[in-house]
Amino acid sequence: MPQIRHALLSACLALLGATAAQAGEIAVIVKTTNSTFWQNVNKGAEAGIKEAAGHTMTFSGPASESAIADQVNLVENAVNRRVAGIVLAPSDPDALVPAIKKAWEARIPVVLIDSQVADSGKAYYQSFLTTDNRAAGELCAKELIAKVGMTGKVAVMSYVAGSGSEVGRVGAFTSYLKANSKLEIVGPFYSQSQMATALNQTTDVLAAHRDLKGIFGANEPTAVGMGRALVQSGRAGKIVAIGFDGNQDLQKFVDDGALAGIAVQGSYQMGYLGVKTIQDVLQKKPVPKFRDTGVVWVTKGNLKSPEAKAVLY
Fold it and tell me: According to the UniProt entry, where is the signal peptide (predicted)?
């Protein structure tokens, strides 16, 4: 009888342990909380957590996308408090690798969203959900060429040099222009994802290059700053301007004609699917190593369409 009781007790403890391992906190850690893009990721994650029985969710990020050490600390703190899983948008491809390795060693699943980590970190995360940034960058380049032609000057207003999404998106944009046109590229300039910095940089570029034919703002705060600079300079609509992401400021710029179009990512989907994918991993379900969350090209002509409304925020 003691042996039977011991076996039953062991089985109960094992069952309780398995349940505990599958419940608990899912930590969503993004590049910064000071952006409507990442706040829309949060909305998606909140919707996902409502469908994840037994889990709670925390949402955090540093004050700016360039505060990489702060983001590393957030991940390490999540590991130390033994969260059930981590959804992470890494600000730097190299700096976050040791942190996600710690999660892997602690058997805490990690799902990346938006940006990749270096190849050395591929073993330490379960899935990567993102826009195909290379394809999106090429899409923006094609739209720009179609509107400005094959010659002239175009400026590239970028955000954080070396971040995973920036390397793919801006790299593909500039590579496509170089390979398929004779357009002269001015920049790139790096705003550090600060709207005010992008505004000032764009103002300077517009003043220095009166013959500019096109301009590309490669993420939300950069594109907003670019759009405001175009309006303030009186050159909105006179230069072909293309933005990336889709908050209300950018939608207004498209509607007013300051921007010819915006490439809009599925930010809500990143948050929603990030949380759902963590839950699948915890339940031992197979998950894809990579999932494309898509991009929609939005112009004044389709701004009110169901397809655009599904991704605008």
Answer: 1-23
| 245 touches 262 (CB < 8 A) | yes
Distance CA 210, CA 308 (A): 33
Fold agreement between 2-130+267-282 and 133-265+299-309 = yes
Q: Please give the CATH superfamily to which domain 2-130+267-282 belongs.
A: Response regulator (3.40.50.2300)
Q: What is the pTM of this model?
A: 0.86
Backbone angles phi, psi at 25, to 5 degrees: -85, 135
Taking the CB of residue 52, how many other CB atoms lie within 10 A of it? Answer: 22
* CA gap 200, 229 in Å, rounded: 7
pLDDT along the chain (313 residues), means of 10: 41 36 83 95 96 92 96 98 98 97 98 96 97 96 98 98 95 98 98 98 98 98 98 97 97 98 96 97 96 96 94 93
